[in-house]
Amino acid sequence: MHYRLRNIGHKWNHKRVYRIYTEMGLNLRRKSKRRLPQRIQEPLLQPIVANETWSMDFMHDVLSNKIKFRSFNVIDDYNREGLNLTLDTSINSRRVIRELDKIIAWRGSPSRIRVDNGPEYISQAMADWASERGIILQFIEPGSPYQNGYVERFNKSYREEVLDAYSFKTLKQADALSQAWLWMYNNERPHKSLGYIPPVEFAQQRLRSSAPSTLLLDQEYQWKSLVLSATN
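Above: the chain sequence. Below: its structure as tokens.
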């Protein structure tokens, strides 16, 4: 700055330039981009037991009144079972941790969770939470969503069958239909990758008495009745 001013004819010394520069509030720190540690690509393998690997991801959508919202999605890679759909206008790392704790309370704890490099997942709070519980956070490489393919496939189904299929006036409407769809997805919808049976049935057939707990049907959120009310 000092030399630039001198080159255009101002003979001020560097001390005066710096004093005026700071008085004008221009001495702001440059924000440096946070450098991520090197991520190692790992093969996307189907676990042989439940709660070995979970995958989680965020999705974005908008209500009919233009209010944006996010969904926090969690699945078990073993049988592609949806474990969580949390919808809200803002979901930070603390909220992610609370939702994961809720899942663990009824499902049990996973050995690892596959995630991308979003700010909620690379936060110190998330790292501390995982370390305290002995859970490995398995980060995919930046710009490689295919490395989190199981939850990406879940996201595709959720978007096509819910988010893009209906227009919601309120977040409560979107959440009600989402929770009803999640139960239907787990218990009724056949999955090609599972031999055309639903995720819950797949786990029960193979794990039998050791099959993990699953989401219970909430009578308030029934897919058929909610769809009928949304289309009438």
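The chain has a mean pLDDT of 88.
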